[in-house]
Amino acid sequence: MNKPKNQTLDPQDWEAMRELGNQMIDDLIDYWKGIREEKIWRPIPEKVKNSLDVPIPEKGKDPTSVYEEFKETIFPYNKGNVHPRFFAWIQGTGTPMGSFADLLASGMNPNTTIGEHSAMYVDRQVVNWCKELMGFPNDASGILVSGGSMANITALTVARNAFGGGKIREKGLLENGRQLILYCSTETHACIQKAAEILGIGSQYVRKIPVNDAYEMRADLLRKQIEEDLGSELSPFAIVGTAGTVNTGAIDPLDDILEISREYNLWFHVDGAYGALAKLDLVYSDRLKAIEEADSLAFDLHKWLYVPYEVGCTLIRDAKKHRDAFANTPNYLLQESRGLSGGLDSINHYGFELSRGFKALKIWMSLKEHGREKYAQMIAQNNRQAEYLTQLVLENPNLELMAPTSMSITCFRMSPPNFSEEQIRDLNREILVRLQEEGIASPSSTILNGKYTLRIANVNQRTQFEDMDLLVREVIRIGKEIIG
Ligand SMILES: Cc1ncc(COP(=O)(O)O)c(C=O)c1O
Prior knowledge:
By secondary structure, the chain is α/β, with parallel strands linked by helices.
């Protein structure tokens, strides 16, 4: 047979590709350097949306024109979380080094799950640093996953599978005979309920314990609910305490929850997706100390370690329980003692995913670049900025603080005298949208005790204190414009 002509996806002209790559880096540097002067958000023109809704290209075109199209249709309409005044949801900024690390990681492109190669050791190194950051013991285990939601379900899977005789993996939930019960607060992130649904616990059996005025779980009501459930022949198995709730940054009484979990022999999981890293801020380290005693912890590095999306981490105190929850070795994943098939324990023994990117590299490079001390300063800075904003709100008679400020989340709204609750809601919704549409700042919103509020969540390494002055000034200006 005549051999067909070889084909490849590598460039025909390597030097042209080098030049294009250099141009991309140049453009990114200009983008980050000038981002403060840019609008935080701009609407996407219909024409652009239409260009992103077309049939699959049958034939390719040259790389430079693909990049030009990206610059025209995608780059200018970014979400904005690289901007110094992005405060919506809880979304990190990223860093240049973190982005370059991602480029290098995808250039090396190791599937980081099995085998003897450098990425496996970087992954192990980063998980060990995560343990060190969080005060987990050396012999604990951990895994890097895509984010907080995955980190939480990974931890809760271990908690579920370790429950009772540890037979759930083999026998399924029914064999256990009794209904599992999971405890969290009414302020717990929605991913915990989703996880419970996926794990076969059922949302009905997620006990959402009421919170106090500071949106922290009521430990007395937690204990009462556990007693009630035990009396009803149900099987409490785990409590989720949140270190930094998504709405207000509240910290559940972790010491009390720890004590209760020990008393009733329940798994103590901490959802620290947002706030666990506030442990590095001396103002919060004591209140977060109980994290060190948790059975498991979920936290995000794409939030408060400012690394680019996506990466979160699950830590499990008992490494055996962790491995027992996920490990299996099909014939095609045998490990050897030497060669590429040797090396460290396969990472898929510690989580659901088999294929994994080299997400550890951006954390490794970022921590090498800045060191723990600098991160501690940055996280503390965000918290102090929230306190500064809170002060501005309290000093301004047009504004109303809607929750105690905890960590770096500030909830406030414009609240003119004699306005009804509905009028205040409509006014602040309009303020929010205009702040975004005018490209000034991107807060988001939430509803606290039935009341609409603007919500400023700051895990932004580019924010300056002056941005808080500007934000307050602009909220008032826009509010007054709307009221006329
Ligand atoms: C407390 C908390 N838990 C879980 C999550 C989910 O994390 P992710 O968005 O990384 O999946 C968040 C996200 O903001 C959060 O704040």
